[in-house]
Amino acid sequence: MKFVFLSVASALVVTRRDLGAIALLGAAPANAIEPCKPNANNCWSTASTDKTKMAPWVFPGSKTEAIADLKAAVGAYPQQGQDGVDLGGWVEVVPLDKGYGKYEFKSGIGNFAKFFNGGQPFVDDFELELTDTNVQVRSSSRVGDSDLGVNAKRINYIAQALQAKGWDAPAIPAK
Length: 175
What we know:
Layout: E1 2-6, E2 11-15, H1 16-25, E3 43-45, E4 57-58, H2 63-75, E5 90-94, E6 100-107, H3 111-117, E7 122-130, E8 134-141, H4 150-163
Antiparallel strand pairs: 1-2, 3-8, 4-8, 5-6, 6-7, 7-8
Helix pairs in contact: 2-4
């Protein structure tokens, strides 16, 4: 089926498929946070339903305040890592300003990375998506099956900073 839109200047022919694509352009990502692979040992997600499930983080104020709190908590995460985690630093890939943010954390620097990953650091993805009342979270290693507890330590470090600001951000157990 085709729709024809006429204007004084010209005619525009748009298919149903085009209309669907146009509708998606302005939409926020629906459930951008994905679950971990079943029973993964290197991932935590609020969208998971198995051992990789974590509770969403509930913020006490407005979404605007929540974004500011999250930016401060992630921004305070040390670039040199913490507790032997993320020794290669991190970078913001998608700014959190519109309610979804994505960060890359590098870990496994040195002999461990040389032996297991061809000398390259391991890269983990950390994603945050705000709803009206909480934050959906996913932290996952890109490769391998084990992360030696790195994702749990990262999540707990950031959750602790949010707890200090009145959030309900439960810690997760290390695997």
